[in-house]
Amino acid sequence: MPRRRRPPQAKIAQRVIPHDLRPVALRDELIELGDLFRAYQQRTEPDLALLADLQERKARAFTTWADVTCEGALRWEARRAEQAAAATRLQHQQRTGGITGGSTGNDGPAVTRLLTVAPQLDHARSVLAYVADHTPLPGPEARLLVLMLTLRTAHTGAGNLVEQDIAALGLTDPQDLVERLTGCGWLTLPGTADDLLASRPENPTPITVPSLVPHEDKAGPFTFGKKMRPKLSGWAQKVISDKKLRKAKATAATRLLALTLATQTDVSGRLGAGGQASP
Q: Rounded distance, CA 143 to CA 148, Å?
């Protein structure tokens, strides 16, 4: 008599979902989430808002699973999912210059990507000036990378980064630049440059710029706060990733020029009086 094949085991995060797990609604949710995460991994383009939602659902499901089975490892996995969701939402905010709603309850309006108020433009110019004076390596490519990393870490000296953030800069040899920045101590990573350049949105790499870490006895180089920082970062990312620049395969020097000009223009794209952007 031929042996009856067992149905394939349902899995999520390399964990087998028991066929007799109860309540049934929990098991169904875990199976669906496993399928959704696998489908997300097949995407050619990331969707950070979607990924954050999936991580939040995973956190809730694993918390319930831990409550049912009293397995501590599941509760630890739930906390990891919560942290991943928060980090992913922050990355989405940094890339777009806006705040996503999602399931976190942020129902306010998205932050505009345009810097339309004079103090915002002043802050952008202050970052450009600071980077011009403090880039530890020569050349426009190094300055562009340092600028974007500074915008990511300006408030606390720490932030998150993935491969796509570096790829968007159009650098000739990003690995070499990252290794030189870590080698001189300007940038610190938990792993190697290869690890950073292989990181994906669901597992971003934490980065630290020691010179930007605040100290009690010393004020930081910038006066803007934590709400302004992602807005400036999102705005800069939008400028350097402009479709025309990407299509022309613009050099780092051209992208820096575009950023500088953007801080000197009004919302209509015209230079303000005296070379200053108009609010």
A: 9
Instruction: Name 95's Cβ contacts closer than 8 Å, sequence gap at least 6.
Output: 48, 165, 234, 237
Identity (one letter) of the amino acid at 195?
A: D
Distance CA 8, CA 34 (A): 13
**Segment 217-260, tens digit of pLDDT:** 666 788 787 788 888 888 888 888 888 888 888 899 988 888 88
pTM greater than 0.70 (yes/no): no
- The structure tokens listed for 3 are 């042996």
Contact 253, 260 (CB under 8 A): no
CA dihedral 149, 153, 157, 158 (to 10 degrees): -100
Helix, strand or coil, per DSSP, at residue 83: helix
Report the DSSP beta bridge partners of residue 72: none
